Amino acid sequence: MRGLNTELLNGKRFLKDQTLENLSLTLKQNGFQSYRAKQIFQAVYGDKVASFDDISTIPKDLRTWLDEYYIFESIQLEKQQISEDGTMKFLFTLADGAKVETVLIPSEMVTFDTDTPKRRTLCISTQAGCPLGCKFCATATLKLQRNLETAEIVDQFIVAERLSGTTLTNIVFMGMGEPMLNYENVMSSVERFTMEDYRMLSPKRITLSTAGIVPGIMQMADEKRPIKLALSLHATTNGMRQKLMPIANKYSIEDLGNALEYYYRSTKIPVTFEYILFDGINDSELDVQRLARLSRRVPTKVNVIPFHEIEFTAPTGFSAELKPTSKEKFALFIQRLKTNGVQVMIRSSSGLDIDAACGQLAFSNAV
Ligand code: SF4
């Protein structure tokens, strides 16, 4: 799948696309001592400096050389908004003019890790737009423009941390795009985030959320990736799932169940199901029973999410029919799941006033 047209970088490369080995080798080939790469990594990922000039541990001629051949930061802030509830939304422009949104969610808003009292979770985008066309999602209306480069994914974290003045504690790959369709760059970014010597985060604090790309789940299993996996399930029958999420025409619920069993056998990491409740669509007692049955196949938490309407995208067809479940039915659904032995989490609607909630990313109030 298409990435950035690198001709637009005028012969330069993104610094954060480089692995430590890569950079060491390039430095050596250009007459610098290879150990300088470690100092650069320490400054960039450990100390999180903001420019080549700020890398005070390397000589000036190396800083000048780096500036000539590399781009320090791959994204530029276009707009930053803060919600009444403390959620922050960042709109970033990329080198080719593509745009992505990134959302910082304060601690209580996301409940992936109930053991961590003070979380600041960054919801990161992995593609500009998205090709999967889920009917409840604003990003789907943008279609796919391209995959993000590793540096563009990593920079969302580093820049958001700097702009917010906080230390981020968790990442969810749940912003714009389907991370499994940009697997290589997403995993490179994970490797960058979790490097032993310059660790920004433990892999346990990173969650990849997929709409259900079976080969990606199998690959994560085969590679024993130590990060967490979340599946956007949203329906308990193939028929309804296909209406909500066209990707379900390719991978059935049975395929997903088998893939998750394979994944759990390999990684021993429990899975999260995400389940947005739509009025009269997926909130019946039969849905409770089927969801409970599915969640028994592997250790699972079910994250029940209120539907956030996307009126600003002027939805048509089935999208226009989707409405949130009432508060009473929402509470009943959760109670019934619990009665059936399901471990349930509730996701509150953070950032609604700035269209930063789940499924709302589409530059609705960008400028
Ligand atoms: S919900 Fe996720 S996978 Fe579906 S269209 Fe939106 S961004 Fe893409």
Shape: globular
Number of strands: 14
Low-confidence stretches: none
Bound molecules: iron/sulfur cluster
- Amount of helix: 25-40%
Could you explain how this protein is built, in words?
- By secondary structure, the protein is α/β, with parallel strands linked by helices.
- The chain has eleven helices and 14 strands.
- Strands 3-4-5-6-9-10-11-12-13-14 form a ten-stranded mixed sheet, covered by helices on one side.
- Strand 3 and strand 4 (88-94) form a beta hairpin.
- The two termini are 29 Å apart.
- The chain binds iron/sulfur cluster.
- Iron/sulfur cluster (SF4) is lined by residues 130, 132-134, 137, 139-140, 176-178, 211, 359.
Short description:
The chain has helices spanning 20-29, 36-46, 60-69, 150-164, 183-193, 214-222, 238-244, 253-267, 285-295, 317-321, 327-339, and strands at residues 13-14, 70-71, 75-82, 88-94, 99-105, 121-123, 127-129, 144-147, 170-173, 206-210, 228-232, 271-277, 300-306, 343-346. With 367 residues, the protein is α/β, with parallel strands linked by helices. It starts with 12 loop residues before the first strand and ends in a 21-residue tail after the last strand.
Helix-strand layout with pairing:
Layout: E1 13-14, H1 20-29, H2 36-46, H3 60-69, E2 70-71, E3 75-82, E4 88-94, E5 99-105, E6 121-123, E7 127-129, E8 144-147, H4 150-164, E9 170-173, H5 183-193, E10 206-210, H6 214-222, E11 228-232, H7 238-244, H8 253-267, E12 271-277, H9 285-295, E13 300-306, H10 317-321, H11 327-339, E14 343-346
Parallel strand pairs: 1-2, 6-9, 9-10, 10-11, 11-12, 12-13, 13-14
Antiparallel strand pairs: 3-4, 4-5, 5-6, 7-8
Helix pairs in contact: 1-2, 4-5, 6-8
Bound molecules: iron/sulfur cluster.
The site of iron/sulfur cluster (SF4) has 12 residues, from loops.
